[in-house]
Amino acid sequence: MTKPEVSVIMPVYNGEKYIRQAIESVFIQNVPLELLVIDDDSTDGTAQILKEYEGREDFRYFCNTSNLGAAGSRNRGVKEAAGRYIAFLDADDWWEEGKLSAQLEQLERTGRVLCSTGRSLMDPSGADTGRYIPVKETVTYRDLLTHNSINCSSVVVKREAALEFPMEHDDSHEDYITWLKILKKYGPAVGINRPYLKYRLSEGGKSRNKLKSAKMTYHVYRYVGYGPLKSACFFVSYALHGIWKYR
Q1: Residue 35 to residue 92: CA distance in whole angstroms
Q2: pLDDT value at position 192?
Q3: What are 117-127's pLDDT values in tens digits?
Q4: Residue 201 to residue 131: CA distance in whole angstroms
């Protein structure tokens, strides 16, 4: 196998309904890659579906002996990865063809550490809702404090940065904390304003409970070191952006 340029990390828990579509969207990408599926101790038929991919040199399967959560599973995948870059994809989302090559081109051209893309919002069945969430061509740390425009399933990031800032604090938006830490140290992210990501609005996602999500967002600011007053100010801006985003 050619050494992978990108290691795709896919955590899954009871994802038999959607994971095949996610996997196939990885394997149509035209870059040297490996897919690492981290099964978080699923109890449904996920493992049976994954057996279909056994024997592929670009497929690696890991099964947690206990439930680690999405953050812990992603961190495990990053440690096991062999690629220069890490891409994250949740098992209920999927990508358009050409996503990874476009992001690698942008990262190499700009010298930046992290790249995200725009996303189309899909309903739980996978049908397009007609709503699109854009991303700026340059996302600064200050931008990100007031509006998390970086969706985890759209990210490609250098592996050393992902190792340096693992995802922590499951009681919060752990990926948001990681992006903030990376941008604070390494500078702005680059964005591709095209819906390469198809993002499924799941019924049970933790961001779907707006009150719970609001509390988690406030905790993000506290975890990255801001006091109560500044955290409240950032949260107000975040909430206003959220109202616009899902209007």
Answers
A1: 15
A2: 98
A3: 999 999 999 99
A4: 11
Vertex 128: Cα angle to 134 and 170 (nearest 5): 65
Residue 153, SS3 per DSSP? helix
Give the SS3 label for residue 13: coil
pLDDT at 244: 57
The distance between the two most distant Cα atoms of the chain, rounded to a whole number of Å, is 54
Strand partners, 116: 191
Tell me, rounded to whole angstroms, the distance of Cα 230 from its chain centroid.
26
Residue 234 near residue 226 (C-beta atoms within 8 A): yes
Q: Which amino acid is at 30?
A: N
- Alpha carbon 35 to chain centroid, angstroms: 14
Nearest Cα to 213, choosing from 232, 228, 235? 235
Residue 7 buriedness (CB in 10 A; 0-12 / 13-18 / 19+): buried
How does DSSP classify residue 152?
A: G
Vertex 203, ends 200 and 206: CA angle to 5°?
Answer: 90
Residue where the block lists tokens 């996302």: 139
Residue for token digits 């995802």? 167
| Residue 20 structure tokens | 């095949």
Is the confidence at residue 223, as pLDDT, over 90?
no
The yes-or-no verdict on residue 243 having pLDDT over 80 is no
pLDDT by residue (tens digit) across 20-74? 999 999 999 999 999 999 999 999 999 999 999 999 999 999 999 999 999 999 9
Q: Hey, what are 191's tokens?
A: 């964005």
In angstroms, the CA 100 to CA 196 distance is 9
Beta bridge partners of 95: 197
